[in-house]
Amino acid sequence: MDEQTTKNIAYIISIVIFVLMFRFILSKGLENRSRVLKENAPKIAGDDVLGGAAINPQQFDEPDDEALEEMAKLLGEEE
Questions:
Q1: Per-residue confidence in pLDDT tens, the chain, 79 aa
Q2: Which residues have CB under 8 Å from 63's CB, separation 6+?
Q3: What is the pLDDT of residue 78?
Q4: What is the 3-state secondary structure (H, E, C) of the chain?
Q5: Tens digit of pLDDT for each residue in 45-60?
Q6: Distance CA 20, CA 10 (A)
Q7: Cα-based distances in Å from 59 to 53, 54, 65, 67
Q8: Distance between CA 53 and CA 63 in Å, rounded?
Q9: Are the C-beta atoms of residues 60 and 54 closer than 8 Å to each other?
């Protein structure tokens, strides 16, 4: 085989490999960019799910002394 033909084949293979690598890197970059934008998008009210339940609801059954004093102060029933 001629030396010039071998060079041309090597150049063609190198260009094809370069194009494939560039395409792969570009697609991965676009995937990562879209994933990051989706993860860091601003939160919209109502999209998230909140439990809404108290961890220990029995703590609200009986008020403690501090809560009673604060309620008395707010109602103006201080002694």
A1: 799 999 999 999 999 999 999 999 999 999 999 999 998 888 887 777 777 777 877 877 888 888 888 888 888 876 5
A2: 71
A3: 66
A4: CCHHHHHHHHHHHHHHHHHHHHHHHHHHHHHHHHHHHHHCCCCCCCCCCCCCCCCCHHHHCCCCHHHHHHHHHHHCCCC
A5: 777 777 777 787 787 7
A6: 15
A7: 13, 9, 13, 12
A8: 19
A9: yes
CA dist 50 and 27 (Å) reads 36
pLDDT of the residue at 19: 98
Which whole-number Å values give the CA distances from 33 to 4, 12, 36, 39, in the listed order?
43, 31, 5, 10
Which residue, 61, 78, 59, is CA-closest to 69?
78
Task: Tell me the residue type at 37.
Answer: L
Residue with tokens 């961890």: 55
